[in-house]
Amino acid sequence: xxxxxxxxxxxxxxxxxxxxxxxxxxxxxxxxxxxxxxxxxxxxxxxxxxxxxxxxxxxxxxxxxxxxxxxxxxxxxxxxxxxxxxxxxxxxxxxxxxxxxxxxxxxxxxxxxxxxxxxxxxxxxxxxxxxxxxxxxxxxxxxxxxxxxxxxxxxxxxxxxxxxxxxxxxxxxxxxxxxxxxxxxxxxxxxxxxxxxxxxxxxxxxxxxxxxxxxxxxxxxxxxxxxxxxxxxxxxxxxxxxxxxxxxxxxxxxxxxxxxxxxxxxxxxxxxxxxxxxxxxxxxxxxxxxxxxxxxxxxxxxxxxxxxxxxxxxxxxxxxxxxxxxxxxxxxxxxxxxxxxxxxxxxxxxxxxxxxxxxxxxxxxxxxxxxxxxxxxxxxxxxxxxxxxxxxxxxxxxxxxxxxxxxxxxxxxxxxxxxxxxxxxxxxxxxxxxxxxxxxxxxxxxxxxxxxxxxxxxxxxxxxxxxxxxxxxxxxxxxxxxxxxxxx
Length: 488
What we know:
It comes from Strongyloides venezuelensis (Threadworm). Keywords: Cell adhesion, Cell membrane, Disulfide bond, EGF-like domain, Glycoprotein, Integrin, Membrane, Repeat, Signal, Transmembrane, Transmembrane helix. This protein is α+β, with helices and mostly antiparallel strands. The protein has helices spanning 2-10, 34-38, 61-70, 83-92, 94-97, 153-163, 176-184, 203-215, 343-348, 471-484; strands spanning 16-21, 51-58, 105-111, 165-171, 191-195, 218-222, 230-236, 245-246, 249-250, 261-267, 275-282, 289-294, 305-306, 316-319, 322-325, 329-330, 336-337, 363-366, 369-372, 382-383, 389-390, 396-397, 400-401, 406-408, 411-413, 418-419, 425-426, 444-447, 450-453. It folds into five domains: 2-215, 3-Layer(aba) Sandwich (Rossmann fold); 221-294, ntegrin, alpha v. Chain A, domain 3 (Immunoglobulin-like, Sandwich); 303-390, Laminin, CATH 2.10.25.10; 396-426, Laminin; 428-488, Laminin (Ribbon). 19% of the residues lie in helices and 24% in strands.
């Protein structure tokens, strides 16, 4: 009864319904043994089933209380449950569930387990995808449980959005993270996740808190999709006074608050369907704004056509300043005799690879051949059959292109006596010769016109050696021998 009081506080016109789910009555979801098919629990319990609508929406609160209390317990074998089948039937079976047209709809999904989703049915040989349709019999049972796979998250999102239903996931602590992820995977949907006590004693408080969270948030949704050729964007300052920001969500909205959204609709490209009924409204509510949209894809100038125009070389019609060439001709002025080739095939002849731009983006493809752009600097030239080469994108030395030598298609071509990526290295050892005629004074190697000295030697020509013995010490034994006949 506390739940009834909670609901009554929200709206005196409330209706309550009740349904329950177990899982598909197939291995590995349910124990296949005959006795377990009838009573899968340790203690006697009801036969398992996919989903049953126990009671359609009604204001008969006593019956609701009685149905919930008398609902029989059953069980499945694996950890996840078939709750997605239950949600799909609840969303799609308007007549059986008793949904009203203009009412705030809310589904409280209460469970202590995870969920099966599209693809899991294959484990039991169920390969037919879920069709997202109503399949409840007169007793409220889901009749396609053994024939169709579980719904995908994307299909659930589509149906929840279509029906404008608010979702509350009342789950135990150990599954809170899983259902948080599920809630985040349902964009533009009013959904919330609350933690259910192990004995479900806090269910009334949980529903009231999560309902208040949903009620205080406005999420603007629409029926625009990529196939419509339209793009929609929202801006609002919500309850603030600052500038408009890009958002379709406003929080902390109380009764009586007024929130304004600025909506921009853009035609991205033309599609066959030019007339479109745009529906905009808050998620979870039936209130919508209907806008009849007509996409204008035709220009006024298209009514004036100059056939066999001289501007098109007599090979096409001039429409809005552009040549519409006759078969066999293409080009800006229909100047290309394409033969059996289409304009796409001619353009392909201007591509170096299938993934590259025509003429590498540095020229025009005319009649299947590249005409490279000219640069403002007449010394800079773009060349090559695909305009892939130039004479100004080569390595530099001291900021000088190729050190003053020639740049050819990204590679420096060095003059006589020079080498290196930027022609920075002179060939030969003339610049490394010391006064004694030795290369690097005999204590190094000449690399690119400069000495790379051996260990302990330094200087431009490796002439410095602070740790080496002096000449006096070096010639001492010889002098002593020649002059005094002593020494080693």
